[in-house]
Design a protein that fits this description.
The complex is a heterodimer of chains A (463) and B (104).
Chain A (H helix, E strand, L loop, with lengths): L4 H25 L6 H19 L8 H21 L5 H25 L6 H28 L12 H21 L5 H19 L7 H23 L2 H24 L4 H6 L21 H9 L3 E6 L1 H5 L3 H13 L3 E6 L9 H8 L7 E3 H4 L8 E5 L8 H4 L18 E6 L19 E5 L2 H14 L3
Chain B lengths: L7 H20 L6 H11 L3 H10 L4 H29 L14
Helix pairs in contact in B: 2-4, 3-4
The chains are: A alpha/beta (463), B mainly alpha (104).
Chain lengths: 463, 104
C-alpha cells in the first residue's frame, strides 16, 4: 500500500472533481424530458464515485460504524422510496431533503463537539450551515407530517410573526455567541441547535397545504446551501460545489413556483391564505348539474375535448380511468388534450408525473401557455378536481386573493363540465364564478366513479 | 484537515461560479420537469454523505461518534431516497405511448 500513498490524495481529489462535473451534467440533462432519465443515472454514478473515494481518505477511523450507518440509512430510504405511492411523492421528497439538512447540521455539531477552538471564519460558516440545515430539517419534518395527513390543522400562534421574529433573533444571537466564544460552551451549542430546530418547526406550522410545495422547494434550496457551507468548513470541493449549485438552482425553482401561483414568497411565509382578505366578488346564480349520460354524449360527439385535471383527480386515483376515457373518445374521432396548470397537483410537474404514470404520452399534455388559446376552439373543457386554477376571478376580480394568478381559460370553451365531489370551495376558500356560468354543468361525485360511469355510457354510443 | 484544504480566495471563486451554474442549469426548464428536477437536486445534495463520513471517520469521543453516526444515516438516506424517488418519477417520461403504461 505504501507505494501507492502519494497517489491517494490526488485520486480522491480527482474523484470529487469528476463527481461534481457529473452532478452538474446530470442536473442539466434532467432539465429536458428527452435526456432526463439519463441525468439521474449520471448524478448517481457521481455519488457512488464520491462515496467510494471517501473510504480512501487517509486516517479514516470508525469504518465499521460507518458501514452500519450507511446500510441503515440506505435500506430504509430505498425501501420507503420504492414503495411510496406516486401521489405521496411530494412528502417523500420533503423528508429526504430534511434528512440532508439534518446531516449538514450534525456535521457542524461534531465540529463544535470536538472542543477545539475553530477560527472565527470556519466557526461562522459551520454555525450558519447548522442554522440553515436545522431549520430545513425540522421544517421539512413538519411539511411531511402535514402532507401525509398526520397533522391536519394549520396552527397559528397568537402574534405568529412576532414569535417568529423573536425566535429568529434568539437563534442568531446564540449562533453569534457560539462563534465568538470558541471553543464553544456545550450548553450554548445545545441551546443554539434547539432554538434552530424550533424555529424551523414554528415557521412551517401555519403554512397551508396549497403553499407547501413552494416551502418544500425552499427547504431544498436551504439544505443545498447548508451542505455547501459545511463543505467549506471541511474544505471538501464535492460538498461545496454540489451544495451551492443546488442552493442556487433551488432558489430559482422556488421563485418560479411562487410566481406560477402569483404568491410572493413573503406572503407564503408570513400571510396565510384565507386571512389575506378579499371577497368572492358577489358570485350569483346557481350551479346546474348534469348526468354522466349527458356528459358522455356531449364529449362523444365533440370535435375537441380539453381535460383539466387537478389534485382532486389525484386524490381519487382517477388518472387511469381518465386516460381510459380519453382513449375511448379518441377512438371515436374526438381530439383529446390535457391542459396542466403550473401548480396543478401538489407541485409543479406533479400532475404530469401522475398522468405519465397512467400511461398518458407527454405529447398529449400541454402547459398553460401552449393551450390557453385553444380553449376558445374546444367544444368541451372537462375540469376534474381542479378549482382555483380555472377561476375566472383571477382575471377579473381585483379584490380576489388569487387575482393575477395565471389561470387556464376553461370558461372560453363552448361547454364546461366540472367533475367535483361536492359544492365546497377550493384551497383558497373562495367561490368559483366558473361553476355558475351559463355554459357550465356540474357532474357531482368522486372522479373515479363518475368517469367510470361516463366510460360505460360512451361505450353504449359506439357506432 | 485532510490535505484537501482550499484557500479562502479559491473557495470564494467556487462559491460564485457554482451559484451561477446552479442558476443557469435551471433557467430554461419546462414546468413538466419542475418536480423531478427538485427531486434530482434533492438527490445531489445527498453528497452531504461524504462530509458525514469524513466527520465520523475522524470522530474520537463517544459523543462525536454518536452525532457522526446520525449524520451518516441521515446523509445516506438523503442520497438513497433521493435517487430512488427521482428515478421512479423520471421513469414515467416515456416518449410516445410505446409501452402503453405499466399499471401499478
Amino acid at each position: 500500500m505504501s507505494g501507492l500513498q502519494p497517489f491517494i490524495v490526488p485520486a480522491i481529489q480527482g474523484s470529487y472533481f469528476i463527481a461534481a462535473v457529473l452532478f452538474i451534467l446530470g442536473l442539466k440533462a434532467m432539465s429536458s424530458p428527452v435526456t432526463a432519465r439519463g441525468g439521474i443515472v449520471w448524478a448517481g454514478v457521481g455519488m457512488l464515485l464520491a462515496t467510494l473515494a471517501t473510504f480512501l481518505t487517509p486516517g479514516l477511523h470508525n469504518i465499521g460504524l460507518m458501514l452500519v450507518a450507511i446500510a441503515v440509512g440506505t435500506v430504509l430510504a430505498w425501501w420507503s422510496g420504492k414503495t411510496v405511492k406516486m401521489t405521496d411523492m411530494p412528502q417523500m421528497i420533503a423528508i429526504y431533503n430534511g434528512m440532508g439538512g439534518g446531516a449538514a447540521a450534525a456535521i457542524a455539531a461534531v465540529e463544535f463537539a470536538r472542543g477545539e477552538a475553530l477560527s472565527p471564519l470556519v466557526a461562522g460558516l459551520a454555525a450558519l450551515g447548522a442554522l440553515i440545515g436545522a431549520v430545513a430539517f425540522s421544517g421539512s419534518c413538519v411539511a411531511y407530517a402535514k402532507l401525509q395527513g398526520l397533522m391536519n390543522k394549520t396552527f397559528r400562534l397568537p402574534a405568529q410573526n412576532a414569535v417568529n421574529a423573536v425566535l429568529s433573533l434568539v437563534t442568531v444571537g446564540l449562533g453569534v455567541a457560539v462563534v465568538l466564544g470558541q471553543p464553544a460552551d456545550p450548553t450554548l451549542v445545545v441551546a443554539f441547535f434547539v432554538a434552530a430546530l424550533l424555529l424551523g418547526a414554528i415557521v412551517t406550522l401555519p403554512i397551508g397545504g396549497a403553499d407547501m410545495p413552494v416551502v418544500i422547494s425552499l427547504f431544498n434550496a436551504f439544505t443545498g446551501l447548508a451542505v455547501g457551507l459545511e463543505g467549506f468548513v471541511l474544505g471538501n470541493p464535492a460538498l461545496m460545489i454540489a451544495g451551492i449549485v443546488v442552493g442556487a438552482a433551488g432558489t430559482l425553482l422556488t421563485q418560479l413556483m411562487a410566481r406560477a401561483m402569483n404568491r410572493p414568497l413573503s406572503n407564503i411565509l408570513f400571510v396565510p391564505m384565507g386571512t389575506a382578505g378579499g371577497d368572492d366578488g358577489g358570485v350569483t346564480g346557481s350551479m346546474r348539474a348534469l348526468t354522466p349520460l349527458d356528459a358522455a354524449a356531449v364529449m362523444r360527439y365533440a370535435q375537441k375535448v380539453i381535460i383539466v385535471p387537478g389534485y382532486g383527480m389525484a386524490v381519487a386515483h382517477a388518472q387511469h380511468k381518465v386516460w381510459e376515457m380519453a382513449m375511448l373518445l379518441e377512438e371515436a374521432g374526438v381530439e383529446v388534450k390535457f391542459a396542466i396548470h403550473p401548480v396543478a397537483g401538489r407541485m409543479p410537474g406533479h400532475m404530469n408525473v401522475l398522468l405519465a404514470e397512467a400511461g398518458v404520452p407527454y405529447d398529449k399534455i400541454f402547459d398553460l401557455e401552449d393551450i390557453n388559446a385553444e380553449f376558445a376552439t374546444a367544444d368541451v373543457a372537462l375540469v376534474i378536481g381542479a378549482n382555483d386554477v380555472v377561476n375566472p376571478a383571477a382575471r377579473t376580480n381585483k379584490s380576489s386573493p388569487i387575482y393575477g394568478m395565471p389561470i387556464l381559460n376553461a370558461d372560453y370553451a363552448q361547454n364546461v363540465i366540472v367533475v367535483k365531489r361536492g359544492q365546497g370551495t377550493g384551497y383558497s376558500g373562495i367561490e368559483n364564478a366558473l361553476f355558475y356560468n351559463d355554459n357550465t354543468r356540474m357532474l357531482y361525485g368522486s372522479a373515479q366513479q363518475v368517469v367510470a360511469e361516463v366510460i360505460a355510457n360512451v361505450k353504449t354510443m359506439q357506432a | 484537515m485532510d490535505g484537501l484544504a482550499i484557500s479562502g480566495l479559491a473557495a470564494l471563486y467556487i462559491f460564485v461560479l457554482a451559484a451561477f451554474t446552479g442558476y443557469e442549469v435551471i433557467a430554461r426548464v419546462p414546468v413538466i420537469l419542475h418536480t423531478p428536477l427538485m427531486s434530482g437536486s434533492n438527490f445531489v445534495h445527498g453528497v452531504v454523505l461524504v462530509g458525514a463520513m469524513i466527520v465520523l471517520g475522524h470522530a474520537v469521543t463517544p459523543l462525536e461518534q454518536v452525532i457522526g453516526f446520525i449524520a451518516v444515516v441521515l446523509g445516506a438516506a438523503n442520497a438513497a431516497g433521493g435517487y430512488v424517488v427521482t428515478e421512479r418519477m423520471l421513469g414515467m417520461f416515456k416518449p410516445k405511448s410505446a409501452g402503453n403504461g405499466d399499471q401499478s
